[in-house]
Amino acid sequence: MKALLKYGFTLALMLALSLSLIGAAAPEQAEKVAQKMLDFDKALTQASTQIDTTLASMNAIGTAPPADMASKYKDFTSQVKKLQGMADKAKSQSEKSAAQREEYLKQWQASQAKIQNPQLQAASEARRNELMPKIDAIKTSLGSAKATFAPFMQDLNDLVLYFGDNLSASGMTGAQPLMEKCNTDGGKVKTDITAGQAAIKDLASSISPSAGAKK
């Protein structure tokens, strides 16, 4: 998940460096950028859903009868690992996005160097200025989610370790404050992700030629 959010920053930076390219290059390139953003939006939806699933499995330990606590703990451990797995998978996405960013930067520099008309140069810059606030909205919301997620994930892993040696009624009492914190922090991460997704869709719609044709 941490890597997933890092991917969001990389994607936003890639767009910031290549916005002028959208008007100068083939429409297919702009469409690919927009689709990449929508793919990331889907990944965020999956991560947000997994946060819900992980928290539900955590809370289930606290309400389970003693005979069921071991099975509930096993499921919780599995869900935490799955959430971490999403972050690891996203790391690969982040690396690929970074490579794309560099390629887009080269194309952007090349395309802008060829523009001679002052009016077109001004129009290209105006287009970039129009989209920058939308990129900032993505960075703000996902930045907040990233800041909350790191300690949230650590708390979940701490609970896995704690319950591994103290899966009992008294152990549950000791873990209750941290479990409540996880529920609160998980909700905040999800809220920030939702805001980020809205910004991502807004920007994708703004740069996609096909989306513009439908308006």
The DSSP helix count reads 6
The poorly predicted ranges are 20-25
Helix content: over 70%
Mean pLDDT: 80
Shape: elongated
How would you spell out the order of helices and strands?
HHHHHH
Rg, nearest Å: 22 Å
Largest sheet: number of strands, sense, barrel closure:
none
Kindly estimate the percentage of residues that lie in beta strands according to DSSP: under 5%
Structural class: mainly alpha
CA-CA gap between termini: 34 Å
By DSSP, the count of extended strands is: 0
What structural keywords apply?
215 residues, mainly alpha, elongated, 6 helices, 93% helix
Provide a descriptive summary of the structure in words.
This protein is mostly helical and 215 residues long. The chain has one domain. It has helices spanning 2-24, 27-63, 69-114, 118-165, 169-207, 209-214. The longest helix is centred in the middle third of the chain and has 48 residues, at 118-165. Mean pLDDT is 80; it is low at 20-25.
Write the layout of secondary structure elements.
Layout: H1 2-24, H2 27-63, H3 69-114, H4 118-165, H5 169-207, H6 209-214
Helix pairs in contact: 1-2, 1-3, 1-4, 2-3, 2-5, 3-4, 4-5
How do you describe this structure in short?
With 215 residues, the protein is mainly alpha-helical.
